[in-house]
Amino acid sequence: MTTSSVDQVREWILGRHPELDDVGPDVNLIESRLVDSLSFIELVYVIEGASGAEIDFDTIDLADFQTISAIDKAFFTRGAA
């Protein structure tokens, strides 16, 4: 079974938090401290690697990184029909 791009992001988060079994699609990653200021840049790189596209730091919208659903919508399903 292949891993979807958004699942790669979820697995990265779970790898940083072995106490968790899963991360729900609407859990606020920042407020819950699953992603903190130190790991945010690494999250961006994980998304870039999974999406194959560079993220412009000058135009980052924090809302695009707050939940798995937001990440999926902003970086993986953009333009998908």
Automatic annotation (TrEMBL):
InterPro entries: ACP-like_sf, PP-bd_ACP
Domain spans labelled Carrier: 1-79
SUPFAM superfamilies named among the record's database cross-references: ACP-like (SSF47336)
Signal sequence range: none
Superkingdom of the organism of origin: Bacteria
Name recorded for this polypeptide: Carrier domain-containing protein
Lineage: Bacteria, Bacillati, Actinomycetota, Actinomycetes, Pseudonocardiales
